[in-house]
């Protein structure tokens, strides 16, 4: 279970801390709090699982929990092997640094050694298709180029667990196809994938199973087509 | 192996060191990128402030300090190092929020990375200061310089020990950022930056040196300006204070660190 203590409940200023701790009164919060409840998922090596659900249903929360960015309020998460995640667009690239410099930084955060990076740098640039622009500051990149670069570094980590959030949607057709080809090979080679996407056809093509999240609760877990059919049906004929 | 989870010591030591080195490189690259004069700017700011202080305190308010400029120079860079680190602490986590929210890694490394980059600059400044003082003040290299590594270590520990909890708290509370400039300007007067600690009345000395910066700067004055080894008692006291502050700072970070990525 993951329960978020709201920023508001945590007190944004000393005034609120004072009210809460000294006067022992609660500061009224008009914001709802979000819980991810009773979530349980086992993913075997070589298996691909898709997460679907409307905006704010908890898909990214699940990815961040698996990635270890968030800590569960209760329950446990266990992962084995190297993990790579492309969760946020741009993943904190610095606009003034070049693509290459950002790659170095991102690779280091992902736990890639300098030797490994040197070895795989050309491969990263090639996969990204960015070419000579890799030596230009990232601020001149389009959002598609950002994603290409972030995704390529994650690929170069050669993870056993790969977490992807929505990112392929930003890339162009070529890059999407390239990513899909890569993910197919990756999963066939025994890699574990957890993907979040609103692009249901892609999830159908890539995933074995799917989880449908709704307001932090699991509505359905099962074979990808069954879950996605139910999800599409529930959203009505206009969806997709 | 259980993956790179940011929950404990699971992030292996070598990954941590590599990330630290990469952050130091990044911070220096960013600072000196597309800046022709580069390091000159880094020196310019403290040198201009010092020039003003020299004029004020050796011609207007005349402090009984021989070669006031040499005195000022001997402690000023350590002072700027510490206060710059504290300011950095208030924004370093926010600066990297994208990274912190998408990859699990021990967030405190960001503070150490900032300190490391600043340390590289400080060491360059220190070489210049030692050279200038050796030529124009001592006429030789005093043996007391051997004590410098201990002082630098103390200074880095102190700066990091305060910057880390500041960084942690400023994720939740904007107040930290607002309060810091006020605290720093007060600290400027209650630390021996522009006057020697020996001018503090004896009955206030005990209270005065409860501020570890007072001890640190006084030891810099001893080593660089007076060319003597610092008093062992003062070193022990300051080291003790720094150890206590750093421990407390780390505990504050450690208790909050699991929540940091979700707050922002």
Biggest sheet details of chain B: none
* SS summary, helix count of chain A: 9
Rg of chain B, rounded, reads 20 Å
Summing up helix and strand content along with how strands pair, one would put the structural category of chain B as: mainly alpha
Could you tell me the radius of gyration of chain A in angstroms? 20 Å
Biggest interface reads:
A-B, 43 and 41 residues
Uncertain regions of chain B: pLDDT < 50 for 5+ in a row?
A: 1-10
Please state the overall shape of chain A, judged from the principal axes of the Cα atoms: globular
How confident overall, as mean pLDDT of chain A?
Answer: 83
Give the overall pLDDT of chain B as a whole number: 91
How far is the first residue's CA from the last residue's CA of chain B?
A: 29 Å
- Helix content range of the residues of chain A, please? 40-55%
Describe this structure in words.
The complex is a heterodimer of chains A (240) and B (264). Chain A is an alpha/beta fold and 240 residues long. In chain A, 40% of the residues lie in helices and 15% in strands. In chain A, the strands form 2 sheets. Chain A has a 6-stranded mixed beta sheet with strand order 4-5-6-3-7-8, with helices on both faces. A two-stranded antiparallel ribbon of chain A has the order 1-2. In chain A, strand 7 (209-214) and strand 8 (217-223) form a beta hairpin. In chain A, helix 4 crosses helix 6 (143-156) and helix 5 (114-128) crosses helix 6 (143-156). The longest helix of chain A has 16 residues, at 173-188. Chain A is globular. Chain A starts with a strand and ends in a 5-residue tail after the last helix. The relative contact order of chain A is 0.17. Chain B has 264 residues and is mainly α. Helix content of chain B is 75%, strand content 0%. Chain B is built from 11 helices and no strands. Chain B has helices spanning 13-32, 39-60, 68-95, 97-102, 108-138, 148-172, 175-190, 202-208, 212-226, 232-256, 260-263. In chain B, helix 6 (148-172) runs antiparallel to helix 9 (212-226). Chain B is globular and about 55 Å long. The relative contact order of chain B is 0.14. The A-B interface holds A 4-5, 7, 10-14, 64, 67-71, 77-83, 85-88, 90-94, 96-97, 101, 104-106, 108-111, 113-114, 161 and B 1-7, 11-12, 14-15, 18-19, 21-23, 25-26, 29-30, 33, 96-105, 172-175, 258-259, 261-264.
């Amino acid at each position: 279970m993951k329960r978020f203590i709201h920023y508001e409940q945590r007190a944004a200023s000393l005034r609120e801390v004072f009210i809460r701790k000294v006067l022992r009164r609660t500061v009224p919060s008009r914001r709802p709090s979000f819980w991810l409840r009773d979530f349980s998922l086992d993913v075997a090596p070589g298996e691909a699982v898709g997460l679907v659900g409307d905006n704010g249903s908890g898909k990214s929360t699940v990815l961040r929990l698996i990635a270890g960015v968030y800590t569960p309020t209760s329950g446990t998460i266990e992962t084995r092997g190297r993990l790579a995640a492309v969760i946020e667009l741009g993943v904190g690239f610095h606009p003034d640094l070049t693509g290459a410099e950002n790659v170095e930084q991102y690779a280091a955060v992902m736990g890639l050694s300098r030797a490994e990076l040197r070895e795989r740098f050309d491969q990263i640039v090639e996969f990204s298709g960015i070419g000579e622009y890799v030596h230009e500051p990232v601020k001149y990149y389009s959002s598609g180029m950002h994603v290409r670069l972030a995704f390529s570094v994650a690929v170069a980590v050669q993870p056993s667990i790969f977490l992807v959030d929505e990112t392929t949607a930003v890339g162009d057709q070529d890059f999407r196809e390239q990513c899909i080809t890569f993910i197919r090979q990756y999963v066939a080679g025994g890699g574990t994938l957890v993907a979040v996407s609103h692009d249901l056809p892609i999830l159908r093509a890539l995933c074995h199973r799917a989880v449908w999240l709704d307001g932090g609760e699991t509505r359905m877990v099962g074979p990808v087509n069954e879950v996605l059919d139910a999800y599409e049906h529930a959203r009505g004929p206009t969806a997709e | 192996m259980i993956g790179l989870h940011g929950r404990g010591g699971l992030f292996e030591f070598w990954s941590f060191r590599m990330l630290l080195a990469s952050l130091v490189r990044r911070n220096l690259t960013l600072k000196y990128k597309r800046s022709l004069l580069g390091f000159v700017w880094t020196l310019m700011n403290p040198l201009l402030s010092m020039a003003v202080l020299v004029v004020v305190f050796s011609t207007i308010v005349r402090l009984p300090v021989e070669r006031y400029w040499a005195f000022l120079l001997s402690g000023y860079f350590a002072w700027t190092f510490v206060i710059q680190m504290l300011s950095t602490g208030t924004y370093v986590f926010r600066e990297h929020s994208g990274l912190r929210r998408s990859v699990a890694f021990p967030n405190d490394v960001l503070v150490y990375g900032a300190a490391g980059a600043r340390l590289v600059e400080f060491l360059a400044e220190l070489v210049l200061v030692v050279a200038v003082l050796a030529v124009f003040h001592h006429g030789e290299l005093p043996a007391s310089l051997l004590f410098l590594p201990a002082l630098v270590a103390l200074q880095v520990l102190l700066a990091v020990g305060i910057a880390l909890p500041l960084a942690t708290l400023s994720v939740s509370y904007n107040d930290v950022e607002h309060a810091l400039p006020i605290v720093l300007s007060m600290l400027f007067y209650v630390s021996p930056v522009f006057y020697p600690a020996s001018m503090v009345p004896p009955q206030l000395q005990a209270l005065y040196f409860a501020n570890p910066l007072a001890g640190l700067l006084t030891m810099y004055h001893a080593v660089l300006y007076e060319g003597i080894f610092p008093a062992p008692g003062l070193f022990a006291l300051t080291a003790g204070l720094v150890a206590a502050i750093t421990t407390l700072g780390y505990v504050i970070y450690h208790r909050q660190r699991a929540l940091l990525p979700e707050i922002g």
